[in-house]
Write a structure and sequence with these properties.
Blueprint: E1 17-22, H1 25-30, H2 33-36, E2 45-50, E3 55-60, H3 62-71, E4 75-76
Parallel strand pairs: 1-4
Antiparallel strand pairs: 1-2, 2-3
């Protein structure tokens, strides 16, 4: 990201940001069983969200989630 660290928060363009995180058990429980039928390891599911926190996808594998973000011209950033 090219925005200076000391920039005001509202100066950051979040539309091009994406976050990758492991799926929460509550989210997993809300998924239909058929959506999980082809998933080999539910512990390897990651959620890809946009800069506003909207869920874009649930993807098997962290590297695959990051690749999906980059394929859609999104810059992944770390959450702490």
């Amino acid at each position: 990201m090219n925005t200076p660290v000391n920039a005001p928060f509202d100066a950051i363009d979040v539309s091009q940001l994406a976050y990758v995180r492991s799926i929460k058990s509550k989210e997993l429980a809300e998924l239909p069983r058929e959506a999980l039928a082809s998933v080999e390891d539910v512990d390897a599911l990651f959620v890809l969200t946009n800069g506003d926190g909207k869920r874009l996808a649930i993807i098997e594998g962290r590297d695959a989630a990051i690749a999906a973000a980059h394929a859609n011209a999104l810059q992944t950033v770390s959450l702490h």
